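Morning run. Coffee first, then this:
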Amino acid sequence: MTENWQEQAKKMVEQGKQAAAGFVSGGEMVIDADPEKGFFRVKLRNVNPAEAVSQITTGFCWLLTNSAAMLNLQVKQYIENQGEKNNG
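And here it is:
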């Protein structure tokens, strides 16, 4: 079953790359994590074009929110540019 899941994940990545072609031409993602504490944060750097950073960040928040819902986790998030808490 693990191999099947890995193959499905690879296919989803390839489909995502095709769908996002031309949106971003490169950059870095730095992940800082402490699994024992349940902590992680992500920083995007050198994204080209820089204007895409906001959309990418919003997309990752959406993805994390929906992934958490699959695990029956309640999501509370703070989006700084909106200046208010958003409960998902």
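The first strand starts at residue 26 and ends at 34. Good start to the day.
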